Amino acid sequence: MISPMNPAQLREKVVQWRRDFHRHPELGYREYRTAARVCDVLAAIPGCTVRVGRDVMDPAALMNPPSAEEFAAARSEAIAHGANPAWVARMGDGLTGVVAEFNFVRPGPTLAFRVDMDALPILESAEAAHAPAREGFASTHAGRMHACGHDGHTAIGLGLASLAPAHAAQWGGKLKIVFQPAEEGCCGAKAMVAAGVFADVDALVCGHLGTGATRAGLIACGTDAFLATTKFDVEYRGRAAHAGMAPQDGRNALLTAATFALQLHALPRHAGGETRANAGTLHAGSGRNVIADRAIVEAEVRGTTAAVNRFMTDEAFRVARAAAEMFGVTCDIRIVGEAGSAPCDAALKEIVRAAAKSLPATHEIVDTLPLGGSEDATLMMLAVQARGGTATYLQIGTALPAGHHHPRFDIEESALWHGVELYAAIAERVLGV
Ligand SMILES: [Zn+2]
To answer: What's the gap in Å between 259 CA and the centre of ligand 1?
Structure first.
């Protein structure tokens, strides 16, 4: 058991946690070290039940997990960098989600906060102008970086958990803090929803540092312009043949993939909302003088509503199969990521507004800012809303030296404590009895 920290000590601790996570970025489903540190901190907090592994993630619902070899390598690396092996053993292959639960004695609603933990495959800037490089907490893994602020989100979640015991007498119901893996690519949320993590949640608060909130002290109570999305791989298998001696015997998977990529960008659009389509990678062939027998395209579509995204997905799949038919090759389509589009509930946004207003760190409050991207937290929001609960996706302001997913992305660390205080003030309003 840790002795209770005063706010100044905890504020410092939150910064240290963020810097530690920033030094050790881990990609989706491979957040073993991060998740194990989270478990260690939570296990030392009085009254906190730590749930991990199969308890909080359904292995059958993992979207696009890495290979068994990659999992094994990630576990070894995490343990070599200080992860507690006992926690790592409970996380199996990619079950790196963690849920902190506080059950208060008095009755009340169940309030959940969701924070995400994964990093990105980006080489972090070593320039002195980049604070993590200058101050010695840049990534220790070349080619991996916390370039979206999820290190900060995880630290905020731990800060909130650390504050909870002091409120045990005044709060009723249940507080859940959900540490989600594999947000990037819209992969990890589905398995947590499938495991029933949100089956008892009455109010869900998701959030992000920065995005549209690009000034310190600014809080957006909600977010709109989520794009529903489907991310998918199309694999074509044809027949190899000598390009000079017997081209007529080949079935060209490369040309099939190229045709699909072009036609994906030529899909009809939908009057019901904005749409996007992108073929992001195309790998094909094995040699200059060989008719390519294999090709893979990584692609995605998006839409402002689930219905518009469904239309784009159906059309994209139809074109993918039609291209295969045209060239006489086989086609295999795998969905590897999904997110929905969820509205933020007015009642919960009002609670966020009141909570934000009570804090000296808040300089400005707006109702809603757009995201203009995709987030699989929407699957959690939709699950809570489907059972009659409320959900919102707030934004915590910070100046950004460079945009999200940029090698010089960074946050203002003062935003971390603003986030902790905001989450605690929301909990006060929802759980206070
Ligand atoms: Zn993010």
So the answer is: 33
Q: How far is the CA of 72 from the centre of ligand 1 (A)?
A: 26
What pLDDT digit, counting tens, does each position of 210-268 carry? Answer: 999 999 999 999 999 889 999 999 999 999 999 999 999 999 999 999 999 999 999 99
Q: Per the structure block, which two tokens stand in for 225?
A: 């312009």
208 CA from centroid of ligand 1 (Å): 7
C-alpha 49/C-alpha 63 separation (Å) is: 27
DSSP for residue 343? P
Residue 127 CA to ligand 1 centre (angstroms): 23
Q: Contact at 8 Å (CB) between 284 and 326?
A: no
Domains and CATH numbers, the chain: 7-225+342-431 (3.40.630.10), 228-339 (3.30.70.360)
Cα separation of 181 and 338, whole Å? 14
164 CA from centroid of ligand 1 (Å): 25
**How remote is the CA of residue 370 from the centroid of ligand 1, in Å?**
14
pTM: 0.91
pLDDT band at 186; cut points 50, 70, 90 = confident
Question: How far apart (Å, rounded) are the C-alpha atoms in residues 429 and 433?
Answer: 9
Centroid of ligand 1 to alpha carbon of 149 (angstroms)? 6
417 CA to middle of ligand 1, Å? Answer: 18
> What is the DSSP annotation of 295-306?
EEEEEEEEESSH
Cα separation of 288 and 370, whole Å? 47
Q: Which residues of 39-68 are buried (b: 16+ CB within 10 A; e: fewer)?
A: bebbeebeebebbbbeebbbeeebbbbbee
CA of 71 relative to ligand 1 center, distance in Å: 22
> According to the per-residue pLDDT averaged within each range, which of 3-12, 45-54, 333-342 is highest?
45-54
Q: Tens of pLDDT along 160-182?
A: 999 999 999 999 999 999 999 99
Centre of ligand 1 to C-alpha 209, Å, is 8
| Residues contacting residue 186 through CB under 8 Å, at least 6 positions apart | 63, 229, 231, 337, 338, 339, 374, 375, 376
* Spacing, Cα 150 to ligand 1 middle (Å): 6
